[in-house]
Amino acid sequence: MVRAEVGDRRILSRSAFPELFHALTEAGYQVIGPTVRDGAIVYDRLRSVADLPEGWTDRQGAGQYRLERRNDAALFGYTVGPASWKKFLFPARERLWTATKEEGGFSVRAEPVEGPPLAFFGMRACELAALGVTDRVFQGGPVADPGYSARRARVLRIAVQCGQSGGTCFCVSMGTGPGVRAGADLVLTEILTHGPHRFLLEVASEAGAAVVGRIPSALAAAGAEDTERAEAIVAATAASMGRTMPTEGLPELLRGNLAHPRWEDVARRCLSCTNCTMVCPTCFCSSHEEVPDLDGRTVERWRHWDSCFNLAFTELHGQSVRKSGLSRYRQWLTHKLGTWHEQFGTSGCVGCGRCITWCPVGIDLTAEVAAIRATPGAVTPKAGGKT
Amino acid sequence: MPTPPRPKLAVWKFASCDGCQLSVLDCEDELLALADKVEIANFREASSAVIDGPYDLSLVEGSVTTPEDERRIKEVRAQSRVLVTIGACATAGGIQGLRNFADVDEYRRVVYAHPEYIQTLATSTPIADHVPVDFELRGCPISKAQLLELISAYLGGRAPNLPNESVCIECKRRGNVCVVVAKGTPCLGPVTQAGCGAICPSFHRGCYGCFGPQGSPNVPSMLRHLHDLGMAPPAVQRVFRTFNPLAPAFKSASEAATSDEER
Question: ipTM for the complex?
């Protein structure tokens, strides 16, 4: 094994690309990455490089997602799909513990968190930023979430710098992409022009170096022109964002406009269906339920994804605190873009655009914010501030 | 020490297809455990042996469509401590609720050789229109898991955990790709209550709304959305008048679709 150093830059040719994949599986990682399923590019277990969406791209707009063929054989020629990496660290449904009635009492058995180390293959800059956010949410408080932490400790992050932006992307506005700055173990940039199909590979951590150290013969030296080429690719992506959302004074803007008429306008469109929160890579709300067996001898505690758009989510003493769709949408947006800063020291939004694409009626948070910014201080006469 | 008496369970049928009662029998693996905990006292779909009431828990399938039904549901209520409706018919009129939007006499003349033998009401109505109902289980048919949760909650003296959230959340928890956004397939998931586990979208079809409206459905937005997807007003009316035509939110949706057409 040849020693690779953090900061090393190498060229990995398309033909040698499978060797990186093999190095991961030989190192014991289960590889999770993008693959085509049911008309979208989703993150799932990959068996080989052949499972990657070679030659596919996506076209995204508000409430619109379509797969299309590219006229080249790019492996990463698309942006982000419906589900984020969140589901591998914070599963949609998870048994936390089981309690059993015994002579004179009961016993509780915590659910073990088992599984192989995971290689997240093809994370985008916005997704690395989202991982940073969920790390703060699940691990930053006085008590770290045990399931999240156990899974998170086993994750290797192989990032891909975006070679194109999607119609609903706005990572530039949120300062999270498209270039990868931190939080990855390896960083790839796919180069399709000016020579053969190849990847610039940057070693960003010791764990990344250990993987790269397994495939010295697959790698060639990277020249200054390769680095410049990669920078030009990222710059072109940054210059073609589908959306923008100026963030200056955003928490204050939202806090000062809780009775703005735009909330009524968006509430007329919002279906309260929860899709935006489900696809968001940082939304973390959950509910717990106790599931007893018919005997009443054993009870399991389950946690599942929940949403601030559900009426029952704020039910206290048989009544929902946020009855109207207006109050629920406003809660979501003001938390995500405003009060998240107070709670976690960062915005809850990374600019991935999933909530725009996967909203059935195409509600676009960047347009909602722009409308409020255009007429700050406007007040709905009848509804002002009412939930 | 004598075992305490098991609660007596009765299952009743009104105008319906028996599918929800079959869901009770479909509890196969859990059925023995269930029979251990409750005395199945009156369930003619399963056994002709009937134990007299009163009953602790009555499950009622079907809607009220005849004068006899009207009389019988009051009897059932009088003999039941807790009455739970099971399924779309009992809860929101069922497919036969279509008669409420049509002329029953005309149906009778067209369908039956001797219409004079048919005694029926002009409407199909949910059980709750006739007697107080303690809980409603949605679906066409009901979900076996929800039924077991209901009975388990009843036995444990707690409220059942049956959320009134949308089908979309179940779809996303399953990891389904949204059929609306990725394929433009019309889907009632956003306005429909969860409970089925998002069966239809899991097989790449739109939701048919068989669990009825979710807790806070936005009907006007859904109607505009279906229109934008290219659904004609009669088709929109049809999807809201399939399994739960009399659920207030779906009824208003189907009526608004018609008025759109007239306009």
Answer: 0.94
